[in-house]
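Handout, page 2. Input:
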Amino acid sequence: MAALIQLAYDDSSDIMDDYLKMSARVARESLHSFCTYIIELYMKKYLRKLTFSDMQQLLEHHAEYHGLPGMKASLNCMKWEWELCPTAWQGSHTSGYHRMPAMMLEAGASQDLWIWYAFFGMPGSHNDINIVHHSPLLNDLINGVGPKGTFIVNDVEYKYGYYLVDGIYPEWAVFVKSFSREGTLDPKRIKFNKVQRGNPRS
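Output:
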Protein backbone atom coordinates (compact mmCIF):
# COMPACT_ATOMS: atom_id res chain seq x y z
CA MET A 1 0.00 0.00 0.00
CA ALA A 2 2.81 2.42 0.86
CA ALA A 3 4.51 1.81 -2.48
CA LEU A 4 1.30 2.33 -4.46
CA ILE A 5 0.46 5.55 -2.59
CA GLN A 6 3.92 6.97 -3.30
CA LEU A 7 3.69 6.08 -6.99
CA ALA A 8 0.08 7.11 -7.57
CA TYR A 9 -0.03 10.36 -5.61
CA ASP A 10 3.62 11.45 -5.77
CA ASP A 11 3.69 11.49 -1.97
CA SER A 12 6.93 11.46 -0.03
CA SER A 13 7.83 8.50 2.13
CA ASP A 14 7.71 10.44 5.41
CA ILE A 15 3.92 10.99 5.32
CA MET A 16 3.24 7.26 5.75
CA ASP A 17 3.72 7.69 9.49
CA ASP A 18 0.23 9.13 10.06
CA TYR A 19 -1.74 6.95 7.64
CA LEU A 20 0.01 3.57 7.78
CA LYS A 21 2.07 3.94 10.96
CA MET A 22 5.20 3.31 8.90
CA SER A 23 8.55 5.05 9.14
CA ALA A 24 9.99 6.92 6.17
CA ARG A 25 12.80 4.38 5.86
CA VAL A 26 10.45 1.39 5.70
CA ALA A 27 8.22 3.22 3.19
CA ARG A 28 11.22 3.93 0.92
CA GLU A 29 12.38 0.32 1.17
CA SER A 30 8.87 -0.90 0.36
CA LEU A 31 8.79 1.31 -2.76
CA HIS A 32 12.20 0.05 -3.86
CA SER A 33 11.22 -3.60 -3.33
CA PHE A 34 7.91 -3.14 -5.15
CA CYS A 35 9.59 -1.57 -8.20
CA THR A 36 12.30 -4.26 -8.22
CA TYR A 37 9.71 -7.05 -8.26
CA ILE A 38 7.65 -5.36 -10.98
CA ILE A 39 10.76 -5.10 -13.16
CA GLU A 40 11.67 -8.75 -12.56
CA LEU A 41 8.12 -9.87 -13.30
CA TYR A 42 7.54 -7.92 -16.52
CA MET A 43 11.02 -7.25 -17.95
CA LYS A 44 11.24 -10.22 -20.34
CA LYS A 45 7.94 -9.44 -22.03
CA TYR A 46 7.17 -5.75 -21.57
CA LEU A 47 10.40 -3.98 -20.55
CA ARG A 48 12.54 -4.81 -23.55
CA LYS A 49 13.35 -3.52 -27.00
CA LEU A 50 11.27 -4.59 -29.96
CA THR A 51 12.29 -7.72 -31.81
CA PHE A 52 12.09 -8.05 -35.60
CA SER A 53 8.83 -9.99 -35.21
CA ASP A 54 7.35 -7.29 -32.95
CA MET A 55 8.24 -4.59 -35.46
CA GLN A 56 6.73 -6.55 -38.35
CA GLN A 57 3.45 -6.85 -36.44
CA LEU A 58 3.43 -3.08 -35.80
CA LEU A 59 4.14 -2.28 -39.45
CA GLU A 60 1.46 -4.68 -40.67
CA HIS A 61 -1.14 -3.22 -38.30
CA HIS A 62 -0.44 0.38 -39.33
CA ALA A 63 -0.46 -0.55 -43.02
CA GLU A 64 -3.79 -2.39 -42.71
CA TYR A 65 -5.62 -0.08 -40.29
CA HIS A 66 -4.22 3.35 -41.22
CA GLY A 67 -3.12 2.74 -44.80
CA LEU A 68 0.43 3.86 -43.99
CA PRO A 69 2.94 1.10 -44.84
CA GLY A 70 6.21 1.52 -42.98
CA MET A 71 4.77 3.64 -40.17
CA LYS A 72 6.23 2.69 -36.78
CA ALA A 73 4.39 5.17 -34.59
CA SER A 74 3.38 8.78 -34.12
CA LEU A 75 6.20 10.49 -32.28
CA ASN A 76 5.63 13.42 -29.98
CA CYS A 77 6.77 14.77 -26.63
CA MET A 78 4.66 15.92 -23.72
CA LYS A 79 5.41 17.87 -20.58
CA TRP A 80 4.82 16.14 -17.27
CA GLU A 81 4.28 18.72 -14.51
CA TRP A 82 6.62 18.31 -11.55
CA GLU A 83 4.78 19.80 -8.61
CA LEU A 84 7.48 18.92 -6.03
CA CYS A 85 10.47 20.00 -8.12
CA PRO A 86 13.38 21.10 -5.88
CA THR A 87 13.84 24.88 -5.86
CA ALA A 88 17.40 24.65 -7.19
CA TRP A 89 16.20 22.81 -10.32
CA GLN A 90 13.11 24.87 -11.11
CA GLY A 91 14.90 27.24 -13.50
CA SER A 92 16.06 24.51 -15.87
CA HIS A 93 12.75 22.65 -15.68
CA THR A 94 10.51 25.64 -16.45
CA SER A 95 9.96 27.11 -19.90
CA GLY A 96 8.45 30.41 -20.99
CA TYR A 97 5.28 28.69 -22.19
CA HIS A 98 4.68 26.64 -19.03
CA ARG A 99 5.08 28.31 -15.67
CA MET A 100 5.15 25.03 -13.75
CA PRO A 101 8.37 22.95 -13.57
CA ALA A 102 8.06 19.89 -15.77
CA MET A 103 9.90 16.94 -17.27
CA MET A 104 9.61 15.78 -20.85
CA LEU A 105 8.18 12.39 -21.83
CA GLU A 106 8.74 10.78 -25.22
CA ALA A 107 6.98 7.45 -25.63
CA GLY A 108 5.82 4.92 -28.20
CA ALA A 109 2.94 2.51 -27.67
CA SER A 110 1.27 -0.07 -29.90
CA GLN A 111 -2.46 -0.54 -30.48
CA ASP A 112 -2.66 -3.05 -27.60
CA LEU A 113 -1.30 -0.37 -25.20
CA TRP A 114 2.09 -2.03 -24.93
CA ILE A 115 4.56 0.79 -24.23
CA TRP A 116 7.54 -0.39 -26.26
CA TYR A 117 9.58 2.77 -25.85
CA ALA A 118 9.79 5.51 -23.21
CA PHE A 119 12.32 8.29 -22.61
CA PHE A 120 11.54 10.36 -19.55
CA GLY A 121 13.32 12.91 -17.44
CA MET A 122 14.66 15.67 -19.72
CA PRO A 123 14.09 19.17 -18.26
CA GLY A 124 10.82 20.82 -19.20
CA SER A 125 12.67 23.77 -20.71
CA HIS A 126 13.50 21.48 -23.66
CA ASN A 127 11.27 21.03 -26.70
CA ASP A 128 10.79 18.29 -29.28
CA ILE A 129 13.91 19.33 -31.22
CA ASN A 130 16.17 19.19 -28.14
CA ILE A 131 14.74 15.80 -27.20
CA VAL A 132 15.53 14.39 -30.66
CA HIS A 133 19.25 14.99 -30.11
CA HIS A 134 19.21 13.09 -26.79
CA SER A 135 16.66 10.39 -27.59
CA PRO A 136 17.94 6.79 -27.17
CA LEU A 137 15.43 5.70 -29.82
CA LEU A 138 16.98 7.90 -32.50
CA ASN A 139 20.53 7.26 -31.28
CA ASP A 140 19.86 3.54 -31.80
CA LEU A 141 18.69 4.24 -35.35
CA ILE A 142 21.79 6.31 -36.10
CA ASN A 143 24.03 3.54 -34.73
CA GLY A 144 22.18 0.88 -36.73
CA VAL A 145 20.85 -0.99 -33.71
CA GLY A 146 17.30 0.35 -33.74
CA PRO A 147 14.21 -1.81 -34.31
CA LYS A 148 14.12 -3.00 -37.93
CA GLY A 149 11.20 -4.13 -40.01
CA THR A 150 10.87 -4.40 -43.77
CA PHE A 151 8.01 -3.01 -45.84
CA ILE A 152 7.33 -2.55 -49.55
CA VAL A 153 6.02 0.54 -51.34
CA ASN A 154 5.80 0.75 -55.15
CA ASP A 155 7.71 -2.54 -55.46
CA VAL A 156 10.65 -1.13 -53.50
CA GLU A 157 11.67 -2.83 -50.24
CA TYR A 158 12.72 -0.62 -47.32
CA LYS A 159 14.57 -1.86 -44.23
CA TYR A 160 13.58 0.88 -41.79
CA GLY A 161 10.20 2.38 -41.00
CA TYR A 162 9.37 5.98 -40.21
CA TYR A 163 7.62 8.05 -37.55
CA LEU A 164 4.76 10.49 -38.11
CA VAL A 165 5.66 13.89 -36.63
CA ASP A 166 4.48 17.48 -36.65
CA GLY A 167 6.17 20.44 -38.32
CA ILE A 168 8.71 21.25 -35.58
CA TYR A 169 10.83 18.14 -36.26
CA PRO A 170 13.88 18.33 -38.56
CA GLU A 171 13.89 17.12 -42.17
CA TRP A 172 15.20 13.59 -41.54
CA ALA A 173 14.38 10.50 -43.60
CA VAL A 174 12.99 8.76 -40.52
CA PHE A 175 10.35 11.50 -40.03
CA VAL A 176 7.24 12.01 -42.17
CA LYS A 177 5.48 15.35 -41.76
CA SER A 178 2.27 16.61 -43.30
CA PHE A 179 2.40 18.93 -46.29
CA SER A 180 2.17 22.66 -45.64
CA ARG A 181 0.18 25.30 -47.59
CA GLU A 182 -3.14 23.49 -47.54
CA GLY A 183 -4.76 25.79 -50.11
CA THR A 184 -2.31 24.84 -52.87
CA LEU A 185 -2.32 21.05 -52.40
CA ASP A 186 -3.75 18.51 -54.81
CA PRO A 187 -6.39 15.96 -53.59
CA LYS A 188 -3.77 13.23 -53.06
CA ARG A 189 -1.70 15.38 -50.67
CA ILE A 190 -4.82 16.64 -48.88
CA LYS A 191 -5.86 13.02 -48.27
CA PHE A 192 -2.36 12.18 -47.00
CA ASN A 193 -2.49 15.13 -44.57
CA LYS A 194 -5.80 13.88 -43.13
CA VAL A 195 -4.38 10.38 -42.63
CA GLN A 196 -1.09 11.69 -41.22
CA ARG A 197 -2.90 13.86 -38.67
CA GLY A 198 -5.12 11.00 -37.55
CA ASN A 199 -8.48 11.99 -39.03
CA PRO A 200 -8.74 9.99 -42.30
CA ARG A 201 -12.57 9.92 -42.18
CA SER A 202 -13.02 13.69 -41.93
